[in-house]
Specification:
transferase (chains A, B); homodimer; 10 strands; two-stranded parallel sheet; lipid biosynthesis (chains A, B); alpha/beta
Chain lengths: 356, 356
């Protein structure tokens, strides 16, 4: 039900994907009547690999997280994530309210051991013709160094899982300059944590990277807080669209340019393919005990289908198991904090001492 | 002396600009011998509108601000900003260390009344074929709501000064979503301040904008902290370069594409002109009692010349006076804090009471 266009986009994309991918099965969750109407429009009323599950409520794009979590317990989002929890679905895809999706997923699925805050990890194209993995893209607008540190570990685990373990993926920390003295306190402290892990051989920390390094492909992974990540991602999408518009309008500006465009249509198609931000839609909610993918809210059918594709590939590649394994290796072994805490409770110490 | 390439770029760009702009005069500040050698290379040893002023020290790209301010008092940067302070130059252009340039400029020139922190304001292209003014682009990596509020006022003053006062320029606050509930505390509180000014008719606050709005041209001005601004700007530049590389390589990939490119070379030239990030080089240090422009550190000759162009235009348009006038109108009238403080000092109250 989510996103700017709701089932008009999501159902259409699901039908299109199901038709070209015989291994896929869909559970469409939301207002039954609306979904059936969309299925009918897409000539898929009796599609053998489409099930509809009713959910009576919808989380809107401006519902606060509290409403999503506490009031709308029969929302399409909640019911969809529940399908994953209960093992009925292997992955959930949503174009809905990011904050709500993260909160609901976290509540229903729980986080992996050692993860305080899940993050959204997405792909961006780069000049080396392979993706730059970037996280967080918008789940956490305020981050402490420990969160960014965990994002680096999760990103490293994801890329190792997806791209194979030939060598540890390189990690860049997004900053305003390459030099160690640059940036705010959060970034400087994060760099210290990452450097320490690098020296231990746990992570392959490259150092600070700048905005342009995203598209240079300087590192496999770029770590940043969700505010910066979200703004940068949307700026890149906006510039991509601007580029496309300019390309089209200039080539149509006179007959000579149009002729050139027709002759070089192969080149234009290739450029459009490489630069179309829709092809990079679909971020993975990383750090949860289940797979959830977030599509851009403004996605059209074509773009939403890419998010489904990414989710489908993650399941096929057994990304969840692989990440869990990598995470277990990478996560710092927790000092046995819980055990003494329990012990101290048994000794009936006064509360004041426990917090000390 | 600054930037990744030093005088090889800055002197060459100055000579090229001086040759095409007879109204311009240059004072080249730095290591005399190096500058004279570059002038010779550029056949401008006895250029009638070029003076060389010696400065024995150079601030490097990774010098901390303290070194720039306290140790290197004869740095090219410091001496150049002094030229503005003393009225010998109308504007200073530098490709050097951003933090140092801001600190030195602030120390030497002082801030305008009501400005706590100067900001860097730059231009980005948008689909409406006019620039989006964006600030801060990297001077302040940590900002409080009051700083972002001042950036909005300064941006509004600048755009009114440059574009004419037909109507109040629109201001967008960069955020992760349009909705009021989105973003971190700093952004939410800033929005409250801007909304209050909008209601008073002082500013034309549009509301939250997202990364893609930069290139859509949703508002005339976009306000953000220097961390987000710097990363976004550099990401946009990186993506711009990626476009250019892809465009070139695809059109050269086979004879047919190349033929099309030759026929449509007018379109390609126009696209390249619109999308080339070099054409948008040159940010204005806003909020100072003098004009200072910051070029990208990695600028080449062509790109640095754009920064000089921008600085030259600012002087021609008498931007400093205009901003000062607008600022005086827009800045909240300061409550008379200083007067009572002086009075209390005269009564010899104990220090403990003064801080209470």
């Amino acid at each position: 039900m989510g996103g700017d266009h709701g089932p008009a986009v999501t159902v259409a994309a699901a039908v299109s994907f199901a038709n070209r991918e015989p291994d896929s099965e869909f559970i469409l969750v939301g207002l039954e009547s609306v979904i059936h109407a969309e299925l009918k429009k897409n000539r898929a009323s009796n599609h053998p690999r489409m099930t509809v599950v009713n959910a009576t409520e919808v989380i809107t794009m401006d519902d606060p997280v509290e409403i999503a979590l506490r009031k709308k317990k029969d929302s399409s989002m909640r019911v969809a994530v529940n399908q994953v929890k209960e093992g009925l679905a292997q992955v959930c895809v949503s174009a809905g309210n990011t904050g709500a999706l993260m909160a609901v997923s976290r509540y229903v699925l729980k986080t992996m051991q050692g993860v305080d805050r899940p993050a959204i990890c997405g792909l961006l194209p780069n000049q080396k013709n392979r993706p730059t993995y970037m996280l967080d893209l918008g789940a956490n607008v305020d981050c402490e160094p420990l969160h960014l540190h965990q994002f680096a570990i999760m990103g490293s685990a994801l890329v190792s899982a997806v791209e194979g373990n030939k060598s540890k993926p390189t990690i860049g920390l997004l900053n305003v300059g390459e030099e160690d003295i640059k940036g705010n306190d959060v970034v400087k402290k994060t760099a210290q944590l990452l450097r320490a892990d690098h020296e231990k051989g746990l992570l392959n920390f490259y150092g600070n990277v700048e905005g342009n390094d995203i598209f240079k492909g300087t590192t496999d992974i770029i770590v940043c807080d969700g505010f910066v990540g979200n703004v940068t991602l949307k700026a890149a999408e906006g510039l991509g669209r601007f580029f496309k518009t300019t390309l089209t309008s200039e080539f149509k500006s006179n007959p000579l340019n149009l002729l050139g465009a027709i002759i070089a249509r192969g080149a234009l198609k290739a450029i459009s393919g490489k630069m179309n931000p829709s092809n990079y839609n679909g971020g993975c909610l990383l750090g949860l005990r289940g797979l959830v993918f977030k599509s851009h809210g403004g996605a059209d059918k074509y773009s939403y289908e890419w998010a489904i594709q990414r989710a489908f590939d993650a399941v096929k590649n057994d990304v969840l198991t692989r990440i869990s394994t990598s995470m277990a290796e990478l996560m710092p072994i927790e000092p046995a904090v819980e055990a003494p805490a329990v012990a101290s409770m048994q000794t009936n110490e006064p509360i004041a001492q426990k917090t000390a």
